[in-house]
Amino acid sequence: MTESTATKVGVPGDERLNNLNVNKPTPWWEKIAIVRDLKIAVGWQKGMLVTGLVITVFFILLALFAPLIAPYGYSQMKDASGASFPTQSAPSAEHIWGTTVGGYDVFSRTIWGARTAIIAIVIAVVLSIFAGVLLGLVSGYFGGWVDRVLVVIADAIYSFPSLLLAILMAIMISGGQSGLWSGILASGISITVVYIPQYFRTIRAEVVRIKNSAYVESAKVVGASTWRIMTKHLLKNSTRTLPVILTLNSSEAILTLAGLGFLGFGIEPTAASEWGYDLNRSVADVTAGIWWTAVFPGLAIVLIVLGITLVGESLNDLADPRLRARKSAGEVVGSIEDTSVDPNEKPSARNEVIAELDSTLNPPATVTDHDPAIVASEWTGEDRTAANGEGKE
């Protein structure tokens, strides 16, 4: 038991409180924003958050275990015997979701596409957060001409349509030809450039608001360095809304990646599976009644965007006290047995120790029999009437 987890107040020489754990340390997993929000969410907000988490985790598991789940490779066009897959084949036992016009297995490419999407999202979000948060801290804290220049650049980038800017960056980075990692990096960096201004503007606004706070001024007085003030005091208190922006941008990144692939600026089909490219190749199939080549990649895009959006909207509602749903006043948390009191139940050892110490530290006050206040309060109505009658006589 450390000094921080035990109460040391008591009678000198009395060590009975040393074994009472009054400040239990919070587990690390309860400090995660989503876990903390799950505990306070109620009603439809909790339903949205749980549904979004289930869908998102499902696609993450698909991405992790794609080699075990998918029966074929993303670019495989022949089976183990060397026979080529039929083109535009309807769903069957061998190809449960059918095949494409190029002879690819739709089910396998849809599963492998989850891995491509998750990797591109992680790269885009990590780079966007790193660059946007760093630039926002510098711009908000130093101000002056640095702030003006960065704000103008961010506003100029933010004014461009996101998909158009991503296409431009993809052409500049990959030249229109993308392999596996070069295509993923090109898509990730293209999406990064689009979303840096959002993180920059959010962090800058928070830093400008809190940089003149009392605790920041106190840190300057004691001689804290600029780097320590920015990272220790400003960064920790200006990133509260980042989880919300992160989740919402992740869903937008999926759509941007699919848009790049649909327009032909994404990843080559032989390098990786990408849902946008598969949708592009299935446009002609739909008019011919071949629905399976477009339905399953499109459904995958809709579901993963829906899951991430539900998580983001739930976090946004829970972060705003005005939108957060609250438990009703009459709602009881726990069972009746946990909240009721049994008068015949013997008190626990902990309660006995606390009661004994309380009586030792705060003994009951003694009052003399001639205390005027006590005597006056103990008079009955008949006593007062008799006294008044005697006075009149």
From TrEMBL:
One of its GO terms (cellular component) is plasma membrane. Gene3D superfamilies: MetI-like (1.10.3720.10). PROSITE patterns: ABC_TM1. Its main location: membrane. Residues 381-393 have a biased composition (Basic and acidic residues). It is a multi-pass membrane protein. Residues 114-312 form the ABC transmembrane type-1 domain. Belongs to the binding-protein-dependent transport system permease family. This is ABC transporter permease.
